[in-house]
Amino acid sequence: MDASRKIKYQQQEHYNVDALAPDNIDRLSTAMVAENSFVLELGCATGHLSKYLKHARNCKVVGVEVNGAAAQKAEKFVETMIVGNIEDKETWKRIKEKAVFDVVFASAVIEHLSDPWKAIENIRAVLKNKGELIITFPNVAHWRSRLRLLFGTWEYEEFGLFDSTHNKFFSLPSMRKMLEECGFFIVQEKYDPAGGAKYFTPILKYFPNAYAHQAVFKAVKK
User: Regarding the domain delimited by 3-221, which CATH topology (the fold level of the hierarchy) does it fall under?
Assistant: First the structure.
């Protein structure tokens, strides 16, 4: 299993989104999903967020997961489970057979792909007119990253911004640019500061590209 996804896979069925901090990325992102939506969840892992979308948001969820063991655990929380890699054409063929979606929910996925632009194009193709993409990603321009680079440090880690399995890195502006170029317009942004900088947090909030450790964007299909 990819080290960067261990935290995601280790979430248990009792995972309570409502008990998380108000600025936690999972709480911010799931709150953006409209109730009663037909949702495609990419990289659903063991289904800890699928379960929340189903029970708390009354959504119908089609899950996609590359890890077979995790998919088996998530299966009871989704209408349909598709085991496959979202960088494979066959996976998207199977997704398209499930009709069009109100929402595509992609949490901690995009940074692991070799071709995020192609994935966004595929996502757009399975959304209904004015359908929504809710996407979370780590922000490489976070103040901690800037500080490390200022001192000449770039070392991959097991978790976090410098995760060794991150294939692509995004800042807030570069994510906006990709989504807009791929046929979306952004209607909402929220930020998880991951503890913030304590004394400097009130100032950093005015500079979201340094404040956000992780971000979630809601983007609408043009």
Answer: Rossmann fold (3.40.50)
| Crossing angle of the two packed helices 89-96 and 116-125, in degrees rounded to 10 | 20
pLDDT, tens only, 136-167: 999 999 999 999 999 998 888 887 787 888 88
Q: What number of helices (H) and strands (E) belong to the chain?
A: 10, 7
What whole-number distance in Å separates Cα of residue 173 and Cα of residue 171? 6
Q: Which of 78, 65, 86 is nearest to 9 (CA)?
A: 65
Q: What amino acid is encoded at 147 in this protein? A: L
Q: What is the pLDDT of residues 123-138, one digit of tens each?
A: 999 999 999 999 999 9
Whole-number pLDDT of residue 183:
98
Provide the residue ranges of all domains of the chain, joining segments of one domain with +: 3-221
* Burial label, 44 (beta-carbon count in 10 A; 0-12, 13-18, 19+): buried
